[in-house]
Input
Amino acid sequence: MIAAEVPEEPNLARSSLKWLVLGVSALAFLYVVWGLYLAGEPLFAVITMALGLAIFILFGWARFYTWRFVFPAVAAVALFIVLPVLYTTGIGFTNFSARNLLTFERVQDYHLQATITDPADKRGFGLTADERLFFPATDDSPALITPPLGDAVNGTLPATETSETVEVEAMRAVMQRRAQLQALAVRLPDERVLKMDGLRSFSVSVPFYEVGPDGVLTGADGTVLTPNHEIGFYQDAGGKTLTPGWRVGVGFENFERVLTSDGVRQPMLQIFVWTCLFAFLSMVLTFAVGTTLAVILEWSHLAYRGVYRVLLLLPYAVPAFISILVFRGLFNQNFGEINLILSTLFGIKPVWFTSPILAKIMLLIVNTWLGFPYWMLLIAGFLQAVPRDHYKAAALEGAGPVRSFFAITLPQILPPSVPLLIANFAFNFNNIVLVLLLTRGGPDIPGTLIPAGSTDLLGSFTFRIAFQNSGQDFGMASAISTLIFIITGVIAFVNFRMMQRYAAKRSARP
Amino acid sequence: MIVENATSLRRRKILAHGVLIAFIALIMFPFLMVLSISFREGNFSTGNLWPSNPTLEHWALALGFEYTRENGTVVKPPYPVLLWLWNSIKIGLIASAGILLLSTTSAFAFARMRFRGKGALLDTLLIVQMFPAALAVVAIYAIFDGLGRVVPWMGVDTHPALILSYLSAITLHIWTIKGYFDSIDPALDKAAQIDGATPWQAFRYIFLPLSIPILAVVFVLSFIFLVNEYPVASILLRNTDQMTLAVGARQYLYEQNYLWGDFAAAAILSGLPITVLFLLAQRFLISGLSEGGVKG
Output
């Protein structure tokens, strides 16, 4: 062990250089934090601040020497794992979804962007040959001219007064540029804004709504929109809600819906049972196949073991997303090669993607195919530790290979495998890549409130609620994610205790 | 296995070879099928398992060339496969380098230094590592969406965003590297310490040079893991030109636009480098695997 205390070097020049560098980076951090805060992102500002502060303290004082080594990893875990997990839980308590996507300020801005034009302020216009807009003089204001259309910044062109009269093109030129002109805003010298309101005229446009206290919007025609912070929508006098909405906290509503609403709970329960079953069967099947092959390959009388081993490793070596998609094609009901062979040999064409049972079987077949090499590799390692003379003794007693496998091999390789089996269970519990790429959860369970598939795992179900179905209910998805985090946490903890127990047992052995 | 007489030995050998060959046939079937499909005409498989009119059309398209059929029609490549492969490699390399950078010093601290809370931190890492990033996608999406409003080059649909989110894969690798550091003879750093080396110097001049092999293993492991990652990449990358292979390959097999033949060629082309890399590295990878379930 290396002592953690390190004497600070007495070199004055070096130490002042260190503080100079630290001071400059602290200032840089503060600058970024301030920028983030001004940009309306307090969360990022706080994170950057914490990061900068940690660096400043750790590198400023020698007593934190050890922590300089640990800091990168701790910061990365906090930022990239803990923060997203906590943030997910936080979103679970909001109504964040495709309908309530924005912040309140941005929803207000959206409504304020609605404008009406004042017909009293109409100005005729023409388009010049070099694509400038020309507004001829009226009784009470001089003629105006803008830079060419291409010079618009954020869709706005400034207009300046002019005393000359400019030649304008025929109507046809305006017709051709119509879409461009309609998107254009012309800023007058007195800062008022003109918008196109017909083929021949622009007129002053003013915001339809005015903001009152508490964010109440009053319209030019007298309509009053009141923000409802309970549901995250503006409502008119009759209580009708206007989209878009903003994110608000809804307490345990999402969790209640998941746990108590029949249309959600029913498919959730079904999916939960299937997820456990899938994870368990995948674990058992891959372990069984992998172990069998490892034991056969361990037999020293067998020739070409190296060749077999590499070929059997292939499913593990090929990127999983490619293999899964290949199976998606091969299992295709109508023109997939598997059904082609099955129908030639046996005259059957199983409907892999429309029958819930067959889809589940297909998922398990593909997952076993993908997963057994992992166990084959690991078990091959464990087999090295099994004492040879045990086999000799068994053979002398007249035990066959099957008997000696169950009596000698299995008891020897099972204990070190247990933590890895649990980790494998957890992996398959959340094996959403397989489902998303192979079946996308389908076929759908009929009669559910939210689309749920019969091959969906909890994770892929959540993923689809958030990103694939039209609702994009992030709040709901996060609530379910939170529940999965809890389940995963329990599995992880059990696994952890098992590993501790195994490690203790191993170190206790002489 | 000890077998007493010759006939039963031969019978068992034949049985074992039979089982293995049958199994390997099952393993190889999809690969051979895809190879055959990549040379078959058209995008729907009909009839033969062996292509009757072999064509290079799918391969030309996968490599990004236009293909002129015999009747004169010109087919354009449906997707930029090589660009996707490049995106995957680029993101995988940068993120893996970042993971190594972040995990090596702390692995050293965990292996050799004494500090408060060490045991608890190590246990936390082990538990945290089982939380799949794929389940926090909503938060990841929201975070980068917000970040993109302030820093556009780190927002949704950018590679830096994906690379940052991939740094979450460090937990497992810290354990792997720590395991290797543990196996280095303590006499070495004791000697360095007596000669007046600081822990940093011991790390920089003794541990780092000695651990190049394990760092290479961790690099390859994390590279393969990241190239295979689908859920997070699929929500952070939306634009076709930004996609990684794992996200892009999916585009071939939509019901409305089912490009089976084109997919086959693209899959072989893009899967081959990664497969070869894995097979070359697998001898070294096995030790890393037993530290925890990286894949499968």
Summary: The two ends of chain A are 25 Å apart (CA to CA). Chain A touches chain B through 113 residues (CB under 8 Å). Chain A is about 55% helix and 10% strand.
